[in-house]
What we know:
3 helices; mainly alpha
Amino acid sequence: MLHPTPADLRAALSRYADAVIEDERRSTPSTVRQREDTAYTLCVMTGVTEVRQALAKADALLRSSAPEVAVARNEGRRPAAVRPTCSGTAAV
């Protein structure tokens, strides 16, 4: 089985979400194909055969990679996959 990086999983999830939104907004043969292709990619990346399973497994894989982010933060450095968030208040 492949072991996708968290960044690769996030990118695939984003492409799938974009494809679903576009297909729901105005379905054409092209948008249907894009939705199917991105679903297939997620299935291959996660080693399952149904897109719902792939989404759940991708979420689980991302959750399991979260401790690495917490460790890096505790060591005073920011991992490349974590971007600062914008909010109305400054972090204390």
